[in-house]
Amino acid sequence: MAEAASVPQPAAPRPSAHVASPQTFSIRDIFRDRATFGKFAAITGLMMGQVFPAAFFGLMLTAIYREKGLPLDMFWVFMLPSVPTWLRPLWAPFVDGRGSKRIGLRKTWIIPCTLFGACAYLSLSFFEPEIATLWIIIAILIVKTTFMTTQDIAIDGYMVENLADDERGVGAAVMDIGRNVAQFSSWAGVAWVYGAYGWSAAVVTAASLLVLFSLPGIARREPPPPLQAQRRHARGERPSLITLLKRPDTRLILPLVMLISFGGGLISNLYIAYLVDVGFTVRQIGPLILAPATLLGTVIGATATAWFLNRFGYKPTILVSAFLMIPTVIPIIWMGSIDKPSLLTVFLVTLNAIILPSFITIAMAASRLKWSSKTQAATDYTSLVVAATAAAAAALGVGGVLAQHLGWYAYFLLSGFFVTGCCFVFYWLFDRVEAAVDTRDRAELAHEHPSIETTPINIGVRHGIG
Known about the structure:
By secondary structure, this protein is mostly helical. Helix content is about 70%, strand content about 0%.
C-alpha cells in the first residue's frame, strides 16, 4: 500500500501497482509475527469452514447417489445447487459496497450468512439421501448456496484486501493446502461419521465445522479498506458489475478462468464416480483413498508449486503444467484395466492425480488474486470465482454424458489432452492479461478510466510471486 500513498500525475511514468517485493514472501514468513499469522489464520479458517460441508455434499453426494443407482446421465441435477453461485455477481456490488464500519465491512455479511448457511445444512438431516428425496435435497442445497455464496462475496473481498501483493503466491498455496486439509477431514471424518452413525450425524458434524472454523475470521479485527476503495467511496462511487464487464482486462480474464476450470473439472468431478464403477464403496473412497491422498498430495503439490513459482515465475510454471496432464490421466486409465485393483494401487494413482495438477491449480489461483482490482475487490474476485465454479459445474454435467457414451478410458484420455491444450492457452495469453491489468491498476490510481490505449508499463516484473 505504501507505493499508492501519493498519486502520480498521469503523464509521469511509475512502477506497477503489483511490482513484487525484492525479497519474496515464503511460507515460513507466515509465522514471522503475530499479525501476519493472525491474518492467514483468519483467511484460511473462513475458507476451510466452507469446505467441510461443501466437500461432503458436493463430492460425496454424487458417490452416495451412484451407489443408490442414479444413472450417470442424471448427474446434471447436481449442477442446480450451483445456480445461485452463477448469479451472485448480480448482488456482489451491493455486498461489496455496504456494511457496518463498527463491525467491519466484510464481517457485516460473513457473520449472519455463516449462521443461516449452517441452519440450511442442518435441515438436510430430516431427509435421507434416497432417489425419492433427491429433489427435496437439491432444493435445500439451492437455498443453502444462496446464503453461502453471499458469505463468499464478503470473504473474497476480505481475502484480496488483506493479502499483500508479495504474499499472494504463497497465499494461494496455503489456501489450497487448507482447502484440501478440510476435504481430508470431511472425506475421512464426516464420511466415517456417515458410515458409522448415519446421514443425520454427518450433516450435524459438517454444519458444526462450518461455524467452528469461521470463528477466527469473525473474531479478528477487520482492517480498513485499501486506499483504492477509500478513494472510490470518497468520490461517491459504488462497486459496479457493469464497470467490471466493460473493462478490457475482464474480457481476457473471465474466459481464461472458465476454460481452465472447465478442463480441470472434467477429470476431478467424475473421479469419485469412476472409483465407484471400479468397485469401491463410499466408505472406502472417503477415509481410505481420497482423504489421505488429498492431504499428502496437496502438501507435496502446493509446496512444490509455491517453490517453483518463487524460483522461476508464472509462465514456466504454466508451461510445466501443460506437460503434466497426460502423466496424470494415464495411470487413471491403467488402473481401470486391472481386475480388482488394490487399495494401495488406487491410493498411489489418486496421489499422482492430485500432485501433478497442482502446478496449474496454484498458478491460476494466484493469478486470480493478482488480477482482482482493489477498487472493488469483492465484486472482481467473486466474478472470477463464479466463472470458475460455473465452468466446473458445467464440466460435471457435460462429463457425465460424455463418460456414459464414450466409456471411462476414452473419456479420461480425451480430458487429459483437452486440459493440456487449456494450459497452452493460459501460457499464450498470460502476458496480454498482465499488460491489461497493469494498465487498469495505473488508471485506477491516477483516477483515469482504464483504456487499452494507455501505454502499459514493463510487465516482466509481474512474473514472480506477487
